[in-house]
Amino acid sequence: MILSVAVLVSHLAGAPPLSSYQPEPTELQRARQLMLSRPNECVALTNYFLQRREVDPAQMINSRQDFDHLELARLYRTREQSLAAWQLQALCQANEGLLLPADASINQAIELAQRYRQPEEQAASLLIKAKLALARQAPEQAQALLDEAEPLLNGDASSYLEDALQLLRATTLLYLQRFDEARQAFEQIRLHALQQDDGIQQAWANYLLGKYYQLLQQDELALSHYVETLDLLNKRRQYYLKAMAAEKAASLSAALGEADQAVHYANLATTEFELLGNSPLLIGSLLNLGRVTRAGNDANLALVYFFNALDLVRIQGDNELMARLYLEIGHSYLQLKTFAEARHYLDMARANFERSQDVPRQIDTLLQLGQLHLEQQETGLALLQLDRARQLAEQRDDVPRLIESHRLLAQLFETSGNMTQALVHHKAFHAYFERASRLNRLLTQSLVQGNDQQLQQERELTGLRRQNEQLQQDRQRFALLAASLSLIAPLLLYGMIRNHIRGRRLQQEGTELRHALLVEPRTGLPNWRQLMQRLPQEMAKRQLRSEQWYLNETEAQPFNDKIYYFLLHVPFMVDLSERVGLEHAANIQQKLGNYLQGRIHPKARLYDLREGQFIYVISQRQVVDLQQTLSSLERMFTEFPCQFQLDQRLAIGIIGHPFLPKAPHALDDMRLGDILYLAMAAAHQLAEQTGELAWVELLAVDCQQAAFFNGEIRHCCVQAILKGLVKVNSSHKKQQIDWHALAPEPAALI
Fold this sequence. Notes:
This is GGDEF domain-containing protein. By secondary structure, the chain is mainly α. The chain is 69% helix and 5% strand. Helix 22 packs antiparallel against helix 23 (419-447).
């Protein structure tokens, strides 16, 4: 039931805040930092500071004597600083284990507070003295000191001392074995801390409730409180409390057979003690971690922890602690069947325990040595060790160790064949075991009333409390999320509207750009890109109809579903800018585009290919008479109104698609284009010779001549014209056309 001294003096035990007009000296700041990690240095710092002379605070405040003020601050101490120094010294001495000097130091602080009439500082000192009384197992004295401190606390400034007082009162009740009152007090403290959102106070109440349930041998409930303490502290820098809770959780997990959990919590305790920086506490944690790891059948790893602790102990020079480590190391080597190493360390441990007269641990060492000799079948040596252990245990009436010694002696005599002695020790083993069991039952019955019902209630209460805390956290997260969304939603809405408007604008700009790419900017007529987009679909449709005509032909009749392509060469559009200037040329071209769009057949299309070339596309079904269509095209340009005299002698090349109705796939769009340009070149030749409008139509005769057009298409077409496979219709005498000049041979490669 004894709580460690460090637990008592580390929680809410600092001196009250100093007055705001003077900063805390460097020595006291450093002493506070070292109170738990290196208490011996903390004591040295406070001793050094208390060697200064005490001075009246009025002498420390003089704005006209800055140099004197700084000198006084370095050489003297004020009343408040003296109080803080004595309180710190008492705490550090207690953490070092020097309880009597600590009591003397805190008495000095109490005397100063009474002399200077500072009730709050006097109450803080009385609380520290009460903690020291609990450490000396004097709960009645601690209760009297708390009663003396309570009237001195009043006002909001003492709220943290009020919390410390309530926690100490509950702890005192626990020491006085008033268990029900202690539990109710801890529960009230925990509930109040939860309402005030004081996680550290709630964690301490949970930790001490775990101690309470551990005293009542309700290990599962105690473990749940230690785990809850760790959850409450989580990422807080409360290294000592986290380490203590983790160490308790490791021991209980090991007792409950949860080896993995025990190792986890023992590792956590060691990590927190290492962050704390207190070597003795870290050594104790490494010892516990090694034991838990060895209990989990990993003696090799346990040896690593024990040897790490041994290195720290050698630095400190603590022979008693070193002997305990020798015992643990020997025990681990024995579990690994490394008998030579086990004997070496167990012999050193026994020698140290005999020298320090530590009888309980001497018995433990003798039992381990007896078991080692049993493993090596050295019956005589084992009997000497175990019988000596039994005698020492009988002298102290140490029941647990008597049980173990009689068990091993019975095993020894059974192994050696002495059944009479084995029976004697078996009877003794069972007698002591029955005695221990009876004592445990009596203790449990005296401490626990209605154990099952209380345990169930506590479990349900713990579960409800955790659910409540989780709901509180969820509600806070939801409120934060809702607030964040309420702030972000307008921004998101603005961004969505802005992106939508921008997307619509970009989409419109893209549509306009795609339209602009398909229109010749000078005339506003569709350009060659639009022609090339539509041409493949148009050709595929005519090719399909041509195939159907060819396959379904029942009587000789020509294919009458062609599409005519008129390639026009307009002379005045070639050098218009050179003749009239850029401004007039642009105006004329724009007017011409608007004019032509209003004059063409409703089902015809006109494309501007630049450089004075236009393609007029119309279905054969819309052409009643080709000569009439040509006259319409001529009038369309000759009637164009313009203030300038324009050369309007058109040269027109004409073909129909499919060019070869019975083999529509023989010629693609590029080869058809070459034939159309050949027709226009012939018309241009006639226009130059006659000075008049000229047109030339190329028409393939109705026969299977597709193979004749394999090769360079212009030469093939000229040869077909000369051989009569392609018919030529013209506005003038077709004999005037020099076809060889229109398809020159390529230059020979050198």
